[in-house]
Design goal:
Blueprint lengths: L4 E17 L2 E15 L2 E7 L12 H16 L7 H7 L7 H19 L3 H5 L5 E3 L2 E3 L5 H14 L3 E5 L6 H10 L4 E5 L23 E2 L7 H10 L4 E3 L6 H9 L5 E4 L1 H4 L2 H14 L3 E3 L6 H10 L14 H4 L16 E3 L12 H7 E7 L1
Parallel strand pairs: 5-6, 6-7, 7-8, 8-9, 9-10, 10-11
Antiparallel strand pairs: 1-2, 1-13, 2-3, 4-12
Bound molecules: 2-succinylbenzoate and magnesium ion.
Magnesium ion (MG) binds next to loops.
Length: 368
């Protein structure tokens, strides 16, 4: 496959409601959409780096720079034989996994369109839909949180993730657990604790949580290992797992018992699949994380989450949980049973609403 042109679009899209995590509040989500031409086909990718370096060091601006100056020049007008081949051509660039993952996504979308196969088929996914949940940001107070959770449950979500941070943890989870004793519930701290402050989380161990996600710093595999020993509830790692090697090491030292997989965080779908394969072989449950994606990234997440090792519901919610207007023609809706249908068309199976893309566009650059 030869890609002759890649256009980058830096987008800014207003969220339906502000999303607060331990690292900050997002009102407008940013990302970079990649549009690539190969022969008669157009393929798309989404780079999930946001405006601020809160979740990781990457931002939409750093990803723009790395894509334009380093990644795109190394793959454009070369014959790409596979996703692995693409990755080997950009392996000299250290870090910047989200920029790389956006680039790899266009390869998959184009490959599917050229071969007339969906991404799910290309990677060996199964079934027609994926179990999903909703990730709920930090709310005003526990009462408001219970109200927000109940609204999502009325919409049909049957798994809820609550964002926590120091001082906004045990009472919030307790309020939701008391209101909904049978709800599948998990929490995500986005690295907000250290071993000392995480002692305050011990009461959570009695609240029947599916998992506690990323309590400690991203570079703190060893401390997660210490912490897991003190908890019966499985610890899940998100930010800490940056590659298949990290995943192997985390499992070897039992720093976690569950892995959140995001293609953007690990440098692309091929790496995400490698982590899935490793965990499946070891019987470690994984699930698909989210980054408030547009319809493009959401389509990729749904295909990824159809692999057999994704046993827990993904952070892949319906379009209207995020945006009133998305940039894909397709809107994703929640089915009964808290599932979302995987697109069936070639590649990602989505098409672009260019009017909406134009309204969200901050800037654009053509590379050829
Ligand atoms: O830690 O999982 C996270 C959103 C942005 C950055 C990090 C995270 C999240 C979410 C939202 O939890 C998941 C989603 O619904 O896309
Ligand atoms: Mg997380």
């Amino acid at each position: 496959m030869i890609i002759s042109q890649i256009t980058l679009y830096h987008l800014r899209m207003r969220l339906q409601s502000p999303f607060e995590t331990s690292f900050g509040t997002t009102h407008d989500r940013e990302c970079i959409i990649l549009e690539a031409q190969s022969g008669e086909f157009l393929g798309y990718g989404e780079c999930v780096a946001d405006a601020d370096p809160g979740y990781s060091y990457e931002t939409a601006a750093t990803a723009w720079h790395i894509l334009q100056e380093f990644l795109i020049p190394q793959i454009i007008n070369t014959d790409l034989r596979s996703a692995e081949d693409l990755q080997s051509r950009i392996a000299n660039v250290k870090g910047h996994p989200m920029a790389k993952a956006g680039l790899e996504m266009i390869y998959w979308d184009l490959l599917g369109k050229i071969e007339g196969r969906s991404l799910k088929e290309l990677i060996g996914g199964q079934g027609s839909n994926v179990k999903v949940g909703v990730s709920v940001g930090i709310q005003e107070d526990p009462k408001t949180l219970v109200g927000t959770v109940s609204t999502y449950m009325e919409q049909g979500y049957d798994r809820v993730k609550i964002k926590i941070k120091p001082g906004r943890d045990v009472s919030e989870v307790n309020a939701v657990r008391s209101a909904y004793p049978n709800l599948t519930l998990q929490v995500d701290a986005n690295s907000a604790y250290d071993l000392e402050s995480a002692r305050n989380l011990i009461p959570l161990d009695e609240m029947d949580l599916l998992m506690i996600e990323q309590p400690l710093a991203e570079d703190d595999l060893w401390d997660h290992c210490q912490l897991q020993r003190d908890f019966t509830t499985p610890i899940c790692l998100d930010e800490s797992i940056l590659s298949a090697r990290h995943a192997r090491q985390a499992l070897e030292m039992e720093a976690c018992r569950v892995v959140n997989i995001k293609a953007g965080r690990v440098g692309g779908l091929s790496q995400a699949i490698a982590i899935h394969d490793l965990c499946l072989a070891q019987g470690v449950p994984v699930w698909c994380g989210g980054m408030l994606e547009t319809g493009i990234g959401r389509a990729a997440n749904l295909a990824l989450a159809s692999l057999p090792g994704f046993v827990y519901p993904g952070d892949i919610s319906a379009t209207d949980r995020y945006y009133s207007e998305d940039i894909t023609e397709q809107r994703f809706v929640l089915n009964p049973g808290s599932t979302i249908t995987i697109p069936e068309g070639p590649g990602l199976g989505v098409s672009i609403n260019y009017r909406a893309l134009d309204r969200a566009k901050v800037k654009e650059a053509i590379n050829n």
